[in-house]
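pinned: reference chain
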Amino acid sequence: MNKIEKLIKGFQLLLKQPSLINLIINQNENWEKLTPINYKKGFGQVSLEQLFPDFDGKLDTVAFLDGGSLITDLLLLKNACKQFDECKYFEIGTWRGESIINLVDVANDLNTLDLDIKDYQTYDFTETYAKAHGFFIKNNAKIKQHLGDSTKFNFAGLNKKFDVIFIDGNHHFDFVVSDTKNVFEHLIHENTIIIWHDYAYSPERIRFEILNAILSGVPKQFHENLYHVENTMCAIYIPKQFDTNLLKVYDNPKRIFSIEAKIKAEQ
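pinned: its structure tokens
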């Protein structure tokens, strides 16, 4: 198929299914072009041991399934919570509950916000997809499950400030901007740590739609405290200053991790 034939075929597909235009608009390369020049290589990188010199941890629940987090992402959350006595934790986006279930031993006040069943219907998600949410935290009395669309949720009504906040809901630009603005307006105190999942597709490939959403949602005076955490898919806001480096793709590993795993049980 030559270029003209591909062009004609493309127009035919768009006429049949106009929503396909979103695939073009949301290509990572297009978002990269919209990125401010001083962020073309992403946020400055910090290492896990820079953030938390005593970084370590054990995870009791890892599914190794699609849509989840890297082991380093989960340990980032866990070590962030360990910085606070009786940590108050809030997350947007539960999925199977893999992130929050690993924090039950390091956080005292655990909160998660995810769509209610009627919201899944609004966004035309399948019933199977909807039922997969919250798998690991069903009937867990230590975890407060708030239900609702985060773009409509009354964050001010929580009347509480949190120590660690994880933003991992809908990953399209407008939603990340909305979640980020609500968090900064209603939920943080002067030492709050905020972590965004899927800032990167992998530890070495930035997701520029999320980067731009973070920049749009975070007040400008806090931009200097935004970082990409090395070896993770996460960006972090932390009210501290660190020496940083820029992402260098295919760079040699700066650190090596030791991991031990076993199968606990079949569900």
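why pinned: The CA atoms of residues 173 and 213 lie 5 Å apart. The chain is about 30% helix and 15% strand.
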